[in-house]
Input
Amino acid sequence: GENVEQHPSTLSVQEGDSAVIKCTYSDSASNYFPWYKQELGKRPQLIIDIRSNVGEKKDQRIAVTLNKTAKHFSLHITETQPEDSAVYFCAASRTGGGADGLTFGKGTHLIIQP
Amino acid sequence: DAGVIQSPRHEVTEMGQEVTLRCKPISGHDYLFWYRQTMMRGLELLIYFNNNVPIDDSGMPEDRFSAKMPNASFSTLKIQPSEPRDSAVYFCASSPSGGREQFFGPGTRLTVL
Output
């Protein structure tokens, strides 16, 4: 089955700096890669996703890049703000998220230092 | 829309007891997923349904776990008998056909003493 590795497990950055979280996956058939944000005690919520026919996708301060050849994808957050502090999970699936179970990475605890 | 509804929000039980977790998906969503979250193992898919039919239950840890979806508006996850290692947050999520996002419920925090 699919295996998703995520690094780092904890990331501390100064407010205003950029943060990068990286994930690798094992199943070459995976073609959908979402990122979820989970605040303490809350549910995971989708923040951005990318399909395998796209190399990069951006939404305001958040961007995701995908390298299918190397089987890795990354989340980039620019101009970090205190409200970005949370745990971020990458995930992968074969059929597109809605119609398939997701395999999640172990999560990255992002800490924004004031 | 009320979103995905889960009950109870917190459950504390003793080892050996039966536990039933409940989920009401968003109306019109054809897919329903059960996930478990622990510090050690992260978020794991347990089972998912499409149009009330179980599609993949390979993530169900053992025979003590069972899940049903008797209709489009309701699903249960049952653990019998419960063990301390079952302590976790159990999330239910749903999504519509053709959709990408899975919408998570608030979760049920289960503690087995």
Q: What stands out?
A: Chain B has a mean pLDDT of 94.
